[in-house]
């Protein structure tokens, strides 16, 4: 019997194996719930099951990426590629639905409040009341146009998700995750202490976030409508998520200090993608000027939301020195 005052240092296998098996079990529970849910993918049960599948797939794939050296590399690379494909496919339907809801709510609010200046369209001549009246006319048409476009995109994404879940490719993924739930293909080095094998990759994941945050351009240096400058922020969001997953493995618990920053980056992504959707709708041929004006105002509003999310991130990022680094 091991003396309680001299505990044995856990190996990397002792730490990494249970985490991956737990996430595999979550994936399989989500799969079971999805199979038991009604065929209508819009039901609450089906949405919960899809979310469970997506979340588990992301955690497994992120863990395989960060701790690849402690695993069978060929197996880890293949399964990670398949899980990234699956989580991306399952995420699109919900993303389109959320984007539509966000844009319609923004149109509703803007039609009765003071307006930001549209970037690509000039408002009708007159004072603020006339501008609001013009927006009120265009908002209904803009909302209908967005609803047609995004509902069509959501329907296509739903069909793609159903096809993916019924494909041989998905069955291969499910079989691989089912095996993972009982046996994790580990590298020989996983027999060494976790502090020697897992802490360095986890630290590297954290350092990558710090580097990404430090390289973000200062707010005053960014043109608010320059969507090409969104990419570093999106990359930072992905790196932060990988860091959070790695933290869960080695601690094991979520880091509450990163919750606010992660939420701000999610809002940033949502606002940026909503702005792109409004801009794309404004390029629809032969739309009425009032509709184009409403979409221009909506695009401007969402770009303001992008800037607001960036400000919230900088306020909530727990490592202030990294934000202000040159």
From TrEMBL:
Domain of life the protein comes from: Bacteria
CHAD domain mapped to chain residues: 9-322
UniProt cross-references to Pfam families, sorted A to Z: CHAD
SMART domains to which the protein is assigned, alphabetical: CHAD (SM00880)
Signal sequence extent: none
InterPro entries named in the record: CHAD_dom (IPR007899), CHAD_dom_sf (IPR038186)
Protein name: CHAD domain-containing protein
Organism: Streptomyces halstedii
Taxonomic lineage from the root: Bacteria, Bacillati, Actinomycetota, Actinomycetes, Kitasatosporales
